[in-house]
Amino acid sequence: MGKEKPRLARLTAILTQLQSKRIVTARDIAKKHSVSIRTVYRDIRTLEQSGIPIVTEEGKGYSLMDGYKLPPVLFTEEEANALITAEQIVGNNPDESLIQSFDAALEKIRAVLRYSQKEKTELLTERLQIRSYSKSERTSQYLIRLQKAITEYQLIELRYLSEKGEQTNRRVEPFALIQTQENWLLIAFCRLRNQFRTFRLDRIEHLFLTTINFEPHKITLEEYFEERKRHWDCTPDIP
Description:
By secondary structure, the chain is of the alpha+beta class.
């Protein structure tokens, strides 16, 4: 175990942890903060006694009462710098929708920074440059909508241009998103081919999110990759 944090700092960090996930187990809290399970129970009771509405789900863990909002969290200088670095990395990727959404989120984050932090983050922004893509143009705009479709299990319809230049209309069940050096890739179960396929986002000519939901796939991304290793001679969206 690492060094135990002072109790006040740990309580604040546990609040942030509870705010960042739908449910958190006592084991997760204990591991993250290098304390015993018994200490976690005491900390949770302390937070409850201070008026924080923590819901205990038997056999699962803890969550904050639905609708409860915590005040803005103050960032350390290191955390603020990490966000500025992330801004540069995101800004240098091929999907326009990701850039727009991240910029909007970061603007809200900047609003809660202390005045002294604002000056430092502005300086770092001017002195930091990330170079990772050989192409600077934006080649896709569907990433954020696809992320929503994955988490909501929404069937999507797309018009797709294959590597051979053939245009097809597909109904697919989005499963995962992968970032490569040049492109974003969508892994989805294609109802036309009746199996999983990989689609390059820069080859999607049109995308529509339907209101139809599909059953979640009983496979993890790691299991999907293991399966693909047995069929490594396949190329994206070509059987």
